[in-house]
Amino acid sequence: MATSIPRLLLGFLLAPGIPVLVLYIINLQLVPRNDAEFGAVMFFLMAYIAALLVGIPAYCLARRLRVSALRGYALLGALAGLVFHAIILISFAPPFSLAQAERLLLLTKDSGPGAIAAAAYAAATGALFWAIAVWPGRTNTIGVRSDK
Fold this sequence. Notes:
By secondary structure, the protein is mainly alpha-helical. The protein is built from six helices and no strands.
């Protein structure tokens, strides 16, 4: 059973934004409202940019590999989050030279919590995407669709 175009579009429209809403609600309890709103807007923009840059190719990879299980989409989401995190690091890194290699190494070393957060956020987004766009398909025990 193939994913329908409307469900696919709905998945790409909703899945990146739902975790932003959850984080916004949590942040309203922890930080001032203006800070929570600013964080939500920034997460919203980054989530949809990531969905365009790495989410769509990750979905195409999932289709090519015939992945249809929740854990597969969550794992691909986590990997997509790490790839997007690496893109952000490389984008904001200074032009590379041997003199700046130490600064790039420190930037990468200190980015561990950000990489974990990006992977967790993207795994949740991948799982939500699966629930919206893929879930009703039949799967066997290893998560590959049984129909061709």
